[in-house]
C-alpha cells in the first residue's frame, strides 16, 4: 500500500506554525542556543490546561492540531499516534528531581512526575482526542523521528491502520544545554544564522521544536508527498555514505540522477559536516541542494524540520533562497532525498515523491 503525507504541523525557531507561509520571513539569530517562536497557545489549548503543560506538550499539541485541521481529519479518524523524541519532557524531569532535593523528599506534587516520562506527549495528545489506538514513543537519539515514521509506514503498508499521526519533539532545558556546552557539542561563540556553515568551529547551535504529520494510505486533497522509503544506520564512515545512498536508491528503483532535490542536515560543526560534503560535492553535485539547521538549530528530532521542509518544497515547487546551498534549479521537482546524521552516528535516509 502507498503511504501519503496528507498534512503537516510545525513549531520551531522560525514562524512555521502558520502553514500558509513558507519561509518568506526568516528570523535571524546570533547565538548558540535558539528557542522556538511560540504560537498563541490560547488559540489551541484552554489556558487552565496550558498552565499545567510542559513546553514540549504545548508545542506538540499545536503541531498535531495544525496537521489534523489541514488534513480535514476528525479525532475519531486517527488510528494511531506515534512520536519520536530524544529527551522527552526533560524539563519536568529536571524540575521534579530538583523539588525532591529542595523539599527534602516531602510535599511533592505529582504533576511534574506524571509529565516527566518520554511518552507523555503521545499520551497527552491521545487523551485530548480520545484515541485508544496504538500509542508509541521512540527514544532513539537522532533517529527517533525516523523510527516513528518507519513504524507508521509499516502499519499503513500492512493495512493495520488507515490514518496515523506521527511526530517528533524535543525541548530545551538548562541542564541539557550546560552539559553539552561543557563537553563541546554546542558552539562556544555565538554564530549568525546565515553564517553557520562558514563558522569553521566545532559544535552546533542547539534548539528545540515539534513537527507532526498525518500519514495515510489514502490520498487527500491536502496531500504533500508519498513516502517511498526510510532507512537508518547506526554508524557509517564518511567514505561509506555515498555507497549506502546509492544502494538505498537502487533498492527503490532509482539512481542519483532521479533525485531532483537533496536536503542535507549541515549544522556547521567543522568535525562532522564532511559527511554531507561526500554527497554534495560528488554524487549530487549537479542536483539542487538544500540545508535547514541554520534555521531550525540542532536537536535529536531536528530531522523533523527537514521532513517538513521536503514536503513543503514538493508541494509548492519552489526553494526559498534562505535554504539554498547551490544555484541548481529544481523545476518540476518530483523526488526529494533527506540525509541526516549527528556527530557521525545515527544516519538516516528518507525518500519522498511529489503527490
UniProtKB/TrEMBL annotation:
GO terms for biological process: fatty acid biosynthetic process. Residues 45-210 form the Beta-ketoacyl synthase-like N-terminal domain. GO terms for cellular component: cytosol. SUPFAM superfamilies: Thiolase-like (SSF53901). GO terms for molecular function: 3-oxoacyl-[acyl-carrier-protein] synthase activity. Gene3D superfamilies: 3.40.47.10. It holds the Pfam family ketoacyl-synt. Keywords: Transferase. This is 3-oxoacyl-(Acyl-carrier-protein) synthase. The lineage of its organism: Bacteria, Pseudomonadati, Bacteroidota, Flavobacteriia, Flavobacteriales.
Amino acid at each position: 500500500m502507498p503511504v501519503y503525507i496528507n498534512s503537516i504541523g510545525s513549531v520551531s525557531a522560525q514562524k512555521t506554525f502558520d502553514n500558509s507561509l513558507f519561509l518568506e520571513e526568516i528570523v535571524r539569530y546570533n547565538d548558540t542556543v535558539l528557542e522556538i517562536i511560540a504560537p498563541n497557545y490560547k488559540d489551541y489549548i484552554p489556558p487552565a490546561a496550558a498552565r499545567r503543560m510542559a513546553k514540549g506538550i504545548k508545542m506538540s499539541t499545536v503541531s498535531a492540531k495544525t496537521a489534523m485541521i489541514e488534513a480535514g481529519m476528525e479525532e475519531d479518524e486517527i488510528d494511531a499516534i506515534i512520536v519520536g523524541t530524544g529527551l522527552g519532557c526533560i524539563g519536568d524531569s529536571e524540575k521534579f528531581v530538583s523539588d525532591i532535593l529542595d523539599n527534602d523528599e516531602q510535599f511533592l506534587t505529582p504533576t511534574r512526575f506524571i509529565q516527566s516520562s518520554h511518552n507523555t506527549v503521545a499520551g497527552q495528545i491521545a487523551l485530548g482526542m480520545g484515541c485508544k489506538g496504538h500509542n508509541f514513543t521512540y527514544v532513539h537519539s537522532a533517529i527517533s523521528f525516523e523510527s516513528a515514521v518507519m513504524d507508521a509506514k509499516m502499519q499503513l503498508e500492512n493495512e493495520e491502520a488507515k490514518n496515523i499521526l506521527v511526530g517528533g519533539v524535543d525541548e530545551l532545558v538548562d541542564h541539557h544545554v550546560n552539559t553539552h556546552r561543557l563537553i563541546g557539542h554546542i558552539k562556544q561563540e555565538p554564530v549568525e544564522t546565515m553564517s553557520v556553515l562558514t563558522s569553521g568551529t566545532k559544535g552546533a547551535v542547539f534548539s528545540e521544536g515539534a513537527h507532526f504529520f498525518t500519514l495515510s494510505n489514502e490520498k487527500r486533497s491536502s496531500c504533500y508527498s508519498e513516502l517511498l522509503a526510510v532507512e537508518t544506520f547506526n554508524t557509517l564512515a564518511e567514505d561509506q555514505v555515498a555507497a549506502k545512498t546509492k544502494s538505498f536508491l537502487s533498492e527503490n528503483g532509482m539512481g542519483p540522477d532521479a533525485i531532483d532535490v537533496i536536503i542535507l542536515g549541515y549544522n556547521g560543526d567543522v568535525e562532522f559536516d564532511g559527511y554531507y560534503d561526500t554527497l554534495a560535492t560528488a554524487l549530487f553535485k549537479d542536483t539542487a541542494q538544500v540545508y535547514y539547521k541554520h534555521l531550525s538549530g540542532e536537536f535529536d528530532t531536528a530531522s523533523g524540520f527537514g521532513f517538513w521542509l521536503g514536503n513543503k518544497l514538493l508541494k509548492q515547487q519552489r526553494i526559498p533562497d534562505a535554504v539554498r546551498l547551490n544555484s541548481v534549479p529544481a523545476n518540476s521537482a518530483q523526488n526529494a532525498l533527506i540525509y541526516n546524521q549527528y556527530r557521525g552516528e545515527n544516519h538516516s535516509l528518507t525518500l519522498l515523491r511529489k503527490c
